[in-house]
Amino acid sequence: MIRFILILSMLMISDALAGDSSIRETSRSVHVLDLDAQNADATSQRLFQKRNEAGQPFEYWVETQSVFCVDEQCKVVTVRIAWDELGHYKRFELAAGVQLEKAEGKPFSEADYQKLHNILADQDSALKTILPTEILNHESSDNDVDGVSAATPLLYEGAVVKGAAWTCYTLWHCANGQLRQIIHDLTADQCTVAEIRTYLQTGDEQHQLFAMEQMMRRKLYDPSSLDAVTSRIPEGSRTVIKMALQYLNQAPDDAYFPSMTQALTDSRAEQRTMVLNDLLHCSRSPPTHLIEQWSGQLADSRSYQHVALLLRLLESHDASSRTVTNHVLGLLDDPNFLIARRAYWFLKQRSLMDAQQERLDAFHHQHAQRL
To answer: Which InterPro entries does this UniProt record tie to the protein (predicted)?
Structure first.
């Protein structure tokens, strides 16, 4: 195991390494992560953090060693690997004049460097499940310690730069290993509530998911937090909506139902369906005035799926107030007969006032052959 030391870089630095591979930033140690305190042979490696002018972390990086051997002569090259503040791989860098090599001492081409970048960016690479011995044994059998100059095993063909399988393997596991979660957790611990809300309101999908995860972890269910999450539902992707609903499901009743009602009102068809399904599987009891408010959406519904879900939701709470009944009665005149028929069967199970029953009977008389 490796012992990682976090270094907080206080100065803005360039994206590329210049000169040699040594670190030139002014920095101070702010955290030590001993990942294997029981292992006296554990090596130490510095994890650096860069912050913007507002003090927010926006990048982490380490310098790791890449070893490749040709004719029993081995070279060690320092490679800098960078992540964003959430632990997603961004890029790798080499010092000026330094290059990676493949089998037989051939230098990486521009295409090789691009392929290596793509490999490191693939979190689901085949390298994730391959054992190091599978690569080393293959390379040894080819008399090529880092070569794979013979036929590349189908197990990881395409997942490595030909002639540099071990280099790809070690760098991928550095870029996609335990450091990703460490970086994620460090950023989470250092974020203020205001920063979390900024991620939610202005960030991309990954930052929105991160923000909601942290809001759940910190149990932030104040009105501002609830509004910020609820506002993501009408325009969010399915992944974002699922996380938003997960957050709202952990909110108190007096926050959950108003927020879900707001989401239901503001959302388009696909998002509305997800909200309705979540409400259907909720074991809590909503207040009557909100049930009546939900039924009011029936008049604006043009989708049978939406109407059917709404009626199922009303049925699950045995909704039968005069307001609910009148809203459903309006569906009997819907030009979509499937919707009108679904409303009929909802009303058929309810105790109606005389005028309401007369309207239902008239519908039955008119459409008896189609019910």
So the answer is: ARM-type_fold
**Pick from 23, 22, 27: nearest CA to 9:** 27
Among 40-54, 102-116, 194-208, the least confident range: 40-54
The overall pTM is greater than 0.85: no
The strand pairing partners of 65, in sequence order, are 78
Q: Are strands 73-84 and 57-70 parallel, antiparallel or unpaired?
A: antiparallel
**E strand or H helix that includes residue 45:** strand 43-51
Please give the structure tokens belonging to residue 248: 């709202």
Rounded CA gap, 182 and 33, in Å? 9
pLDDT tens for 64-84 read 988 776 556 678 899 999 999
Indicate whether 19 pLDDT > 80.
no
Structural domains of the chain, ranges and CATH numbers in brackets: 2-180 (no CATH), 192-284 (1.25.10), 298-371 (no CATH)
Listed residue (130, 203, 127, 123) closest to 158, CA to CA: 127
Q: Which of these, 42, 59, 44, lies nearest to 8 by C-alpha position?
A: 59
Here the tokens at position 138 are 């293959």
Closest-CA residue to 215 (of 250, 186, 164):
250
Percent helix, percent strand, percent coil in the chain, to nearest 5? 50, 15, 35
**pLDDT per residue as tens digits for the range 235-246:** 899 999 999 999
Cα–Cα distance between 282 and 363 in angstroms, integer?
A: 33
Residue (of 155, 154, 84) closest to 121 by Cα position: 84
Which stretch of DSSP H or E encloses residue 187?
helix 178-190
